[in-house]
Each structure stands twice: as C-alpha cells, then as structure tokens.
Amino acid sequence: MQGFNFTEYIPEKDDRSPFEKLLPIFLELVTHTSGDVEEALEWMRELDKAHNLTTENYTIDDFIEDLFEKGYLREPGDGTGGGLTAKSEQAVRRRSLDQVFGKMKRSAEGGHRTNEAGKGDEPTGDKRPYRFGDSTHEIDFSNSIRNAQVRGGIGDFSLFEQDLEVNETEIKTSASTVLMIDISHSMILYGEDRITPAKKVAMALSEFITTRYPKDTLDIVVFGNDAWQIGIKDLPYLKVGPFHTNTVAGLLLAMDLLRRRKNSNKQIFMITDGKPSCLKVEGGYYKNSFGLDPVIVNKCLNLAGEARKIHIPITTFMIAEDPYLQKFVEDFTEANNGRAIYTGLGGLGEWIFSDYERNRKRKG
Question: What residue ranges are annotated as transmembrane (predicted)?
Fold first, then answer.
C-alpha cells in the first residue's frame, strides 16, 4: 500500500543578526520610495509597530545607527546632503537581481550562446571530424586514437588526419543593449504601480550584465515628454512624472546610442504600457491622450522600420491589457520584425532575462 509519510515541520534556524534581518526590508522600501531614505524609515517604524520587527535590545534607532556605521547611509553634513551611498545602491541592485534572476534556472557560466557552432569558446559536448585550420587544442585525442585503432586493427599504430575528431564549441559574443523605460504618468494610474517592477528589472539587468558579461554594454533610457539617458547608479531614484509618452524620442535616443557602439549585436528592450501620446515639435509638444493618434503612431512605426534596416531588433514588453494598445504593439513589432511580449508585472523580469540570453546571435 502506497501513501505519504508526514513528519513534523521544524523551521530552519535563522542565524542572521538583527541588522541582517532588517536590511532586506529597508532595501525593499527604499526601492519603493525611489531612494527617499526618510520615507523608507518611516515605513519601517510603522511596520515595526504592526509586526514587531525589532526588540528592546535592538531597535529601529539601533538599525539606523548601524546603517551609517556600515556605510549604507551618508551623513548629512559630508557635503552630499545625506542619503544612500554607492554601497547601498549596489545592494539594492543585487537584491533586485536575486529577486528576479534567482527565480530562473541558471545556465552554465560563460558568454552568450549563439545558434552557430564552430570555432568558439565553450564545448558543446558534440564531436565532428577535423578540418584544416582547427586548433590542436580542440582535438579530442581519446576519440582520435580510438578511431585510429579501429581503422588499423591490431598491429603498428598510425594516426592519420581522417582519424582526428575535434570538440565542437559555441561562439560567445558581446552585445550592446538599450533598456527603455516608460516613466509617463500612466505607469502609476488606477492604483497599479508599474514603475517599481520595471525599475527592479532594470537594476537586476544592470547587475547581471556588469557581473556576468562585463564586455557587454547597457544603456538605460527613460522617456516621458522627452527622453534622456540615466546611469545605473540613478536607478534606485527613478520615479514617474506628470508626463505623456514620447516613444519617438526614446527610440531616437536609443538608436543613436547603439550607433556609437562597436558591438555587432545590438538590441532595444522597451518596457511600456504601450500608448504613445506625445511628440516634440518646433516650439513645444504635440500631445494627444485620447486614443491612438495616427500622426504619433506613424512616427513610431517609421522608426521601428528604420531600426530594422540597421539590424536593431526591438523587444516590447507590454504591461497593459487594452486590446487597441496591443494592436499598436503588434503593428510596431511587425514593422521592426522584432518581438512583443504581453506580460504581467510579476513575470516581467523572467521574460527580459530569457530574451537577453535568447537574442545573442552572431551577425556575419
């Protein structure tokens, strides 16, 4: 008779210090407050009252003191106005990486894989006959000697070119990526916080690329009424504004940045709720928040086609469900021959990381 045997659940002992237990909560709150330390600490005090995060022996005030002593916060009097340090900014990025990428199955360490085999860097486990020009380092001598023995039989040993086998390898490439993030007001409309997950993904992707693929480049472009480039260190402080969505400005800046990059593999990832509503024109802005304006839409489609001509694929991560907006994204994707992913905020990070690995192709 088959069945299940149940044993008493004994939780693992948590050997972390009080500071180590509170730090992840603080880093999460700082992300939601866009780097506002005072607001994050106010939230921590409220959480402490509701859930008893601290004890009489270690209070929130003790935690704050440790944040300064351990280099996570700057003193207000050091000429910088206080706030997060570079150490805490990196800690926020690493936490985002753990939250987003930690859910995914990690592949073998190395460079980006391509769909091509040949002279490369990483063994695939496959073998092929030796070809003139192959490096001697690639020869599988065990298989080659066995082939010679099978061919020659018992007797004098001889090794000929036709006996040689080499280890097949995969080519590792470098890539240049621009991540575009929509910071228009619609990214926080209707009580749904879309900007915090987008920001987390950007921080995780930046930490992932700089640590795993240091030869790759990542540029981050935000777009509202206008578009501008921000640095990795600026990501924790990113917030939406009272902006429309100038997708055209974002695409123009992204394409300009990629034209300057020497890598042959270039791509754009765009996180948006899908509705372009603004153009910069002489003397100001042309805005239309009602529906899809054909003037604005056509500009976007033209740029999608232009990016296709210069071999820059665009992957659009659509985080809204409106059918008419999805239709625009479909037309945009067709013009670029890119890819559209309609994703909830929960799965956004996994899709981006999967696509980052997937889009590694060697261009001849």
Answer: none
